[in-house]
Amino acid sequence: MTTDAVRPSDTAHPGRAVSQPTDDVPGPTIDTPYVIMLVRELLIALGEDPSRAGLLDTPSRVAAWWRDFLSPDPSAMATCFTETLASDQLVVVGGLSVWSLCEHHMLPMKLDTHVGYLADGTVLGLSKFGRIAQRYAGRLQMQERFTRQLADAVVAAIGSEDVAVAVHGVHLCMSMRGVRMETARTSTVQAGGRFRTDPLLSQQFLTLAGRRGAP
Ligand SMILES: [Zn+2]
């Protein structure tokens, strides 16, 4: 599936942290004791005996995992640097693999993510991309929404529409249930600014973003 749309940009603030886009959602409130109780109930509903040795600590382990997964680092913000030599240069950051959860089946999906932008006097701190991606992955998600949210975050960070994000996803809800297509991949692209209007630039990005590692 391929989607693209032009998104409004915020003002750039080179040299300091910038806020996330306005459509970001606040982190959930997680009632861990209640989750522990519900997992125990789920085990019973599935015909298990939660008091047997192997399952005794399972509800608390599962609840701890949910708490951690749904609480990605809220301080993961993009930091921009001014670099006057980086003029109109295509930057593609790839190899950003993050785990998320499909909101339709609550099963994992692995999102192999590539971010491209035109560095025109502003360079985004490379180490931040992975943390921003993790921030949007750590919730019940759809790959299409993740792709757009990540693109919005980079647009907001660099203050330019010239941003493209490509995501190659492996969804366990396709691999281990339903049609059981183990090799199925879903690709999404969100392209803005010159990535929409310049075919050569778009092709350069897609070529680089297609060089993904083994999922
Ligand atoms: Zn699914």
TrEMBL record:
Residues covered by region (Disordered): 1-28
Domain called GTP cyclohydrolase I: residue spans: 39-208
GO biological process: one-carbon metabolic process; tetrahydrobiopterin biosynthetic process; tetrahydrofolate biosynthetic process
Reaction equations catalysed: GTP + H2O = 7,8-dihydroneopterin 3'-triphosphate + formate + H(+)
Pathway involvement of the protein, from the record: Cofactor biosynthesis; 7,8-dihydroneopterin triphosphate biosynthesis; 7,8-dihydroneopterin triphosphate from GTP: step 1/1
EC number of this enzyme: 3.5.4.16
Gene Ontology MF annotations: GTP binding; GTP cyclohydrolase I activity; zinc ion binding
Binding-site residues for Zn(2+), renumbered to this chain: 102, 105, 173
Source species, domain of life: Bacteria
UniProt entry tagged with the keyword Zinc: yes
Entries under InterPro entries matching the protein: GTP-CH-I_C/QueF, GTP-CH-I_N, GTP_CycHdrlase_I, GTP_CycHdrlase_I_dom
Gene Ontology annotations for the cellular component aspect, listed alphabetically: cytoplasm
Alphabetized UniProt keyword annotations: GTP-binding, Hydrolase, Metal-binding, Nucleotide-binding, One-carbon metabolism, Zinc
Entry similarity comment: Belongs to the GTP cyclohydrolase I family.
Entries under PANTHER family matching the protein: GTP CYCLOHYDROLASE 1, GTP CYCLOHYDROLASE I
Cited NCBIfam families: PRK09347.1-3 (NF006826)
Quaternary structure (record): Homopolymer.
Protein name: GTP cyclohydrolase 1
Organism listed in the record: Nonomuraea cypriaca
